[in-house]
Amino acid sequence: MSRGVIIFWLLAVACIALDLQHSPYGYRVEPPALALGSGEAASGAHCSGR
Amino acid sequence: MQRLLLILPALLAWLAITWFAGIRAGLLLLLGLGFGAALSSARFGFATGWRKLVTERDPWGMAGQMLLLSLSALLAFPLLVHASEEMAGALAPITWGLMLGALVFGFTMQLADGCGSGTLYKAGASSPTSWAVLPAFIVGSFFGASHLPAWTELGGPLNVIDHAQPNEPVNLIAQLGLVPALLITIGLCLLIAFVSIAVSAHHHKSRGRSLPPIPKRWLWGAVAIALVYAAHLVVAGQPWGIVYGLGLWGAKIASALGVDLSQDAFWGAAPHAERLLEPVLWDVTSVTNIGLLYGALIADRWNLKSPQKPRWPAASALLISIAAGLIMGYSSRLAFGCNVGGYLGGIASASLHGWVWFACAFLGSIVGVRARAKAGIA
Predict the structure, then answer these.
(1) Tag placement on chain B: N or C end, fewer CB within 10 Å?
(2) Closest Cβ opposite residue A48 in set B272, B275, B337
(3) Which of B67, B21, A37, B362 is nearest to B32 (CA)?
């Protein structure tokens, strides 16, 4: 592994950890494993603007 | 041993994400790994495929994309129809913003040396250019999303033809029915593949050469990506996307720096405001993006014959690529997504905007490949 790859992933993991730490949400109602057959509508937040 | 060391972080990440964000998020990470591995192993570049068609009259990248679109539509259309309560397609209106955004995106993706998926998989596979382009892409996506409502309000060509026409998506399935929509989509893909091959064959024949054979990677790459695409739809209930997650990362960074986005036309509205507050691992697109980055690294190292040091391009070329990445991020939001969310997602959701995206982006790309040559980007 080159130094660049290691720095890239260390930065990524640090950002995710900071985000988890500072999120006001402690828990959530977990969605079903598969959307298909769940009877629940898609949550949205897609590139198409939904 | 080295291969085991590559797989181990992926397994740990899967366990951690399943623990923190649930089984669905864990599955989405695995699908992201699949996207990254397939894109990197097959070197399935959307920008590269178009560039090779324009500059070398090599039609196989375009044909591979058309195979991917056909297979994705074949798998996704029935799901979108028969599970319409749980599945939502990538439907978007045909706006001026879409046309301008796709045109500019097509132009800049040639300068940034990768489209949305290309930038991510190359960054994962440790391309220095893509490492530099990715942060610019994130910043551009954040601002583009913020301005998207204003661009969408400008309307589009359908409003000019008919003033009473609402600014809404044109869904081919809703207009024509499942089978005709599927036949038209696959028919258009076949037509574009056929024209690309015929034009290229004629070009080579006129120079006394024959068309090069189709590299198998375009075929198995298209099949693999289409299968993971359908699995993503089943798990997430929405098509594969990339730039939403990148914009969200930008918005999260802006929030962390003290920018108040509560009044923002996009980031202050539902469901984006919730995504901003929730952990990033709860967001569908972010998790698949993370998986894609690491999947590309695994595939790249797995297939590597000998260790190679990342090679940085010349400073001027790098600066041009970074600027292109910034514009690419902005324009992809105007266009309701990049080559994945707008082009693949739109067409495989039977949304007419996907075809408009393709036409405008391809036009932009034709100019972009010439600009790329002038800028000295290898």
Answers:
(1) N
(2) B337
(3) B21
The answer to whether B166 and B177 have CB atoms below 8 angstroms apart is no
Q: Smallest Cα–Cα separation from B110: which of B58, B52, B40?
A: B52
Is A19 in Cβ contact with B86 (below 8 Å)? no
Contacts of B296 (CB under 8 A, 6+ apart): B36, B37, B39, B40, B120, B121, B122, B123, B124, B125
Nearest to B58 by CA among B204, B157, B177, B159: B204
Closest CA to B241 of B280, B297, B272, B284: B284
Segment A7-43, tens digit of pLDDT? 999 999 999 999 998 887 767 778 999 999 998 888 7
Which of B234, B242, B278 comes nearest A25 by C-beta? B278
Q: Are B27 and B281 in contact (CB under 8 A)?
A: no
